[in-house]
Amino acid sequence: xxxxxxxxxxxxxxxxxxxxxxxxxxxxxxxxxxxxxxxxxxxxxxxxxxxxxxxxxxxxxxxxxxxxxxxxxxxxxxxxxxxxxxxxxxxxxxxxxxxxxxxxxxxxxxxxxxxxxxxxxxxxxxx
Length: 127
Prior knowledge:
Layout: H1 6-11, H2 20-37, H3 43-61, H4 71-79, H5 86-105, H6 108-126
Helix pairs in contact: 2-3, 2-5, 3-4, 3-5, 3-6, 4-5
């Protein structure tokens, strides 16, 4: 099941960012997940952070951002561990700051296209 359809892409603004409530909801979810990673993370917390990292990587692949320090790759590796150390927590804090900036500046259509690209990738893997 997909979150966004082709119609969602077409109807999304090609110039304005996602609505503020959607951006705030996503960021609150991801920041809470990161906070939980410091003590007792759930599978949902890991999934929320993985979504942020995956979206950033997808936007990088789409040419909308650069990652010369390979922070996204480092974050992917960190998510495969049982717990995060202080340095990795700082890494995720930086990624979430960047994700906030990306969401605040990229058009809604671009963000929805990135979400759809991830969903399609997951569907191919699951098939």
